[in-house]
Amino acid sequence: MRLAFILMATVLSTAPREWRDSIRDVYVNGKLDRGAQTLVTTSPRMFAIVCGDHVVYFDPQSTEVSSMPKSEFVISADHMTATSAAEPKGAHAGSVVKATDSTYLATLDGKTLLVTAHQSKAGPMTIEELWQTAPTWHAINETYEPDPAMIERLRKIDTPVRLQIVMATWCGDSRQHVPRLLKSIARAANPNLTVELIGVGPDFTTPMDVVQGENITNVPTVIVRKGPTPGGVNSMVEVGRFVETPAGATVEEDIVDIVNGTPKPHPGRHERGSLKTTGTYLLRNARHRVEGTEQFEVYEKIIHSVIRKRDGTSIETWASPEFVEVTSRGTIDAHMRATVTRARFRKTHDGWSAESRGADGGIVDQTLNTPNVVVTPATVTYAWARNAASAYVIPEHGMGEVRAVKMRIADGDVPKFVKLEDGSSRKLMRR
Fold it and tell me: In the chain, which end has fewer C-beta atoms inside a 10 angstrom radius, N or C?
């Protein structure tokens, strides 16, 4: 038994270290080097900067920088991942200091190396500009092999279609899907398909006319517009959009389904587990007038709720004790678009952090110490605060706040009746 333990320990200690691409801007002697790739790993967290034929790497908790030949790293063909020895043994090359949470300044071999957050290009760009801004995306594009059947479906599109691809080179989902979509469109070579690339800045406010004007809450968003176009591009009509992750197997499959008028319902990107129960609440305001209904599903790992109000607005919530996402869809605006805001809330070691994006454009951040209990627009979550004096209350749109808990709740993990301090109530109709 002891020999087996020693052998297992040896195997574990010599397992290759896994690295993944994490886009950063790297400046060498003050000049931006787009060809430099940043890789990260965990346990412990380390950075590796691939520059030319060498790799420099460091632990953010240390001040030492080491260097080794690039050949010591095995980098995948799409440049998304790499492996190295479990404990890289490079030569001492210099020192590093942490300037901010996302910025490191290293000195090595008479050079300065500044590693900082990626500043993506905002606004219209060409495919060539995209590859220059994010070379890893080009590698993904070149190595991707689309499904031949999907290419044939793209080739059969017989009416003008314009894809406005709104993405960000700092976004992992954009990196995952946009290069592959561009490869499929190029392979199809259908003159009816045209593409417009729009980059979103790191503050999610630029370009404002697109972020706000097109109600962009997540990237990538691919807006699908169809012709015929006797009045030009501006006369094309939006028939649907791809947002963030595919409903089908790939983004190109989603695009074809949207063009054909048969879009798949999106299953959501959240891990659910088994379905435990479903039901419907009737919502009344303080005057006891019906203002809407709420349909919900309680899964093993998360709660899903959709509130539909009489004025046409809706609030969709995904909620667990450590993560909440609330998407509010408003009434149709003057341009025949529904206004949308989306907020995501994550539990931290000492509170909650929140990020909201919406029709007003930009990102609103919030980080604060809060009670462990959270209440969301999903009625089922009110049961979490039954015995709490206060809770972090997440509204139907916007940021949350810490408030005293004042509500009357029927017993049960799925309350049969909830009455709030403002006089409004929610009654379980069926389950």
Answer: N
CATH number of the CATH domain containing 168? 3.40.30.10
Digit-coded pLDDT (tens) for 324-372: 999 988 865 554 456 788 888 888 877 788 888 765 555 566 666 667 7
In a domain, 265, yes or no: no
| Number of folded domains that form the chain | 3
Cα angle value 167/76/189 (rounded, 5°): 50
Q: What is the dihedral of CA 177, 179, 185, 191, to 10 degrees?
A: 120
Q: Give all strands of the β-sheet with 390-393 in edge-to-edge order.
A: 374-375, 390-393, 401-404
The answer to whether residues 233 and 338 belong to one domain is: no
pTM over 0.70: yes
Tokens of 424: 């409004």
Q: Is residue 3 part of a domain?
A: no
- Does 9 score more than 50 pLDDT? no
Smallest CA-to-CA distance from 37 within 81, 93, 4 is with 81
DSSP state of 79: S
Same domain, 100 and 128: no
Residues 56 and 72: beta-carbon distance below 8 Å:
no
CB 48 within 8 A of CB 56: yes
Give the Cα separation of 211 and 257 in Å (integer). 25
Q: Kindly report, residue by residue over 99-128, the tens digit of the pLDDT.
A: 887 899 999 888 899 999 998 889 999 999
Helix axes 172-188, 251-259, angle to 10 degrees: 60
Q: In 54-90, where do the E strands start and end? A: 54-58, 64-69, 74-75, 81-84
